[in-house]
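ok so I'm stuck.
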Amino acid sequence: MNYQEALDFLYQSLPMFQRQGKTAFKKDLGNTITLSRHLGNPHHKFKSVHIAGTNGKGSTAHSIAAVLQSAGYKTGLYTSPHLKSFTERIKVNGNMISEEEVVAFVDKNQAFINDLKPSFFETTVVMAFDHFAKEEVDIAVVEVGLGGRLDATNIITPLISVITNIGLDHTDLLGDTLSQIASEKAGIIKPGIPVVISETQGEIAGVFKQKTDESAAGLYYADQEYQVQSNELGNCQVRNSDGKMLLSSLIFDLKGSYHIRNIPGILKTIDLLRKSGFIIPEKALTEGLSHAAAITGLKGRWQLLDKKPTTICDIAHNESGIRPIIKFISRQSYPGVHIIWGMVNDKNTIDILKLLPRDAHYYFCQAQIPRALPAGVLAESAKTLGLLGKTYDNVNTAISAAREAAGEDDIIFIGGSAFVVAEIDNL
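replied:
not stuck anymore, here's the structure
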């Protein structure tokens, strides 16, 4: 078996949510537990931090991993979805799992997987845990894929659970109210394990309190302990709740106003890791947060692709993720705004399109996956809201058209779906 054959098995033989949608979502942990037991329960062999949330969980995971790496710890990192290569999902100290190791895992376990029939996600989660155990990582940072309670990653018992924020996303699977979604995310809370809530949202605070009371877990609202001021270019000052300066000049690698909101949760998690015995000097903290993308290989989060014209992509794909991005762009004085936009077919298209500026030039496209919303359908929906533009078969054709039309001082923004961003050439 070669690498391509291993990928074909993973993609084609196993249900994959990113491509197929909710038909691939398994509503229990049985397969993950069974597959993990088959491999000797590798998730019992390393310490971990578990991160859930609607937005910000990926950048939070990468930032915490970068700080731990900077402090000298051998750090595993599991995130999803990948943008360019399957191996992006599973990293140790920023190095992706090798193609050879993917082949070895599939080759060794193919017969068992064929009999069990787990999903793509269940299989890749256990592959990651097996890799971390074999690499003898000091700690792994594990991002939830979808929800929390029934997510395949939820077989771990972490040192700390982190929930970044709650928004309306995947409502067909997680519930159509913030409280219902919060309850699913709160499913990662374990007995006696401290819980960090990055962002206080009053309407769902009771959900977390009830769950932590039942679990005898410590509950920490990070944004009530750390106050962050930023110029939205990543230059931050951090104070405690009493106004005392903690960090007078923190350069946060992940630009954009939404990512700044993740800092309190990151800082509180590092604080709790220190209390649990991890030695993390201030230098490691600032180094990790200043160079998180480079240290961990993070892509697609407010990523600058070009300067003339300014060309930026971001994988935000729901209302609470897109809103601050559009707000930031609208505050700038760009002569022209060019937006390349594509979505998947299970999002609330109209509500998201309502957030976009009417005075921008639009280039509607679609990712090359079954879940993609056809560009023509997207353009028609946008037209009803006064958002006008042309349609393109793929994101790179749309980018070429935008670059040809844009002036040097304009901005081109590419977004609407992680899968659109993933297909950008040379990302």
